[in-house]
Write a structure and sequence with these properties.
Length: 247
């Protein structure tokens, strides 16, 4: 019997839908390297189908598993359609600011992947790799938000947050060009990068709304602000001729 190959795409779809820390697999399932990374980053437990497991995150009352309304503490035997997982068995409205923020992150990741496909079609490997950094950072932000853990600092394009901020403000010094005004003649890739920058900004605003009363999560807001600077710098670098086509 042919062994099933589990990809990060399947895991990510399941994670965004349920945020469950447990994922059932067929015996003998093989994992892609990206799937292994996603499992490690999000602390997902793989359980073979048919194996005995205990879902410790779901409390039991009179032998019945219960969900909990995160706002009221009310226990429920079944998850209402208008609610979704905040984390574990805690449920909130699908219109909860943190759920809306996660939706923005999901859209942002989809936009990055589409842009990477465009970059690959034009044979610009350096641009594709730069966007890999943007995608990885977005995934880290989502993971930290869902798991409610601090977001680790990291370099983007080889720069610290402050260096990135300075480079994006001083394009003349960092890229040799003035701050560009978007125009249709720039070409599809440049305009898609500018569009991506606006998506990052929207996501940052969603984060501010989600964590308006939680100063501990300003790490996420700050990271998205720097991610916007990163995308803007990639945009400027493309216009300056840095990401040349492969010949």
């Amino acid at each position: 019997m042919k062994k099933k190959l589990l990809t990060d795409i399947e895991l990510r779809a399941h994670w965004h839908r349920t945020h469950s820390p447990v994922y059932e697999i067929e015996p003998g399932t093989m994992l892609t390297p990206a799937a292994r990374d996603f499992i490690r980053e999000n602390r997902i437990e793989l359980v073979e189908k048919g194996a005995t497991m205990t879902r410790v995150s779901v409390p039991f009352v009179d032998g019945k598993p219960r969900f909990v309304d995160a706002a009221t503490g009310e226990r429920m035997d079944e998850k209402p359609e208008h609610m979704t997982h905040l984390n574990g068995n805690r449920l909130v409205s699908k219109l909860h600011p943190r759920i809306l923020f996660r939706g923005k992150l999901d859209t942002l990741m989809a936009q990055i992947l589409c842009l990477q496909a465009d970059a690959m079609a034009e044979e610009r490997p350096q641009l594709t790799e730069a966007l890999d950094e943007v995608l990885d950072r977005t995934r880290q932000i989502l993971s930290a938000e869902v798991r409610e853990v601090p977001l680790e600092d990291r370099l983007l394009l080889g720069m610290t947050d402050e260096e990135l901020r300075h480079a994006s403000h001083d394009l003349k010094g960092s890229c040799g060009i003035d701050h560009p005004i978007p125009h249709r003649d720039m070409g599809r890739l440049a305009l898609r990068l500018n569009l991506l920058r606006t998506f990052v900004r929207e996501t940052e605003l969603a984060a501010m709304a989600a964590f308006a009363d939680d100063p501990s999560r300003m790490d996420i807001v700050r990271a998205l602000n720097r991610l916007s600077s990163c995308v803007y710098l990639i945009f400027a670098r493309l216009l300056s001729g840095k990401y040349e086509q492969r010949r």
